[in-house]
Design goal:
This is DUF1840 domain-containing protein. Pfam families: DUF1840. There is one protein chain. The protein has four helices and four strands. With about 110 residues, the protein is of the alpha+beta class. It has a four-stranded antiparallel beta sheet with strand order 2-1-4-3. A hairpin with a 2-residue loop joins strand 1 and strand 2. The longest helix is centred in the C-terminal third of the chain and has 18 residues. It is elongated, with a radius of gyration of 18 Å.
Length: about 110
């Protein structure tokens, strides 16, 4: 299921609900429907930027690394499997963070599910 974030300040941002839920949980918002007002935008940006900074400090988890090694032989030459390319939290959050920055600058709200 997709969530569409809209604001008069920027183009729509589409995100899978499972990925948006992590962001919205950090902001104590409902994933089905909600609003981040222009007044809430500075705090929302602070929370998300802090989480992005923390997520960048963590290395690839052992489980992902173990899975990569399990699917490649010792020479690293296994044509049947490709390396895992994990999408980071910062990459997923970037479009919404940019929307929030524009909303804050323009004094607009960000809404979804309405």
């Amino acid at each position: 299921m997709l969530i569409t974030f809209t604001s008069k300040a920027a183009s729509e941002v589409l995100m899978y609900k499972e990925h948006a839920k992590r962001i919205l949980d950090l902001l104590h918002k409902n994933a089905d429907q909600g609003v981040i007002t222009a007044a809430e935008a500075p705090h929302a940006l602070q929370v998300l930027e802090q989480e992005i900074a923390e997520s960048r400090q963590h290395a690839v988890s052992e489980d992902v690394e173990r899975d990569v090694h399990a699917h490649h032989n010792e020479d690293g030459d296994d044509a049947n499997h490709e390396e895992i390319q994990a999408v980071s939290f910062s990459t997923r959050a970037y479009p919404l963070v940019e929307m929030l920055r524009a909303a804050k600058a323009g004094g607009h709200d960000v809404v979804w599910g309405v």
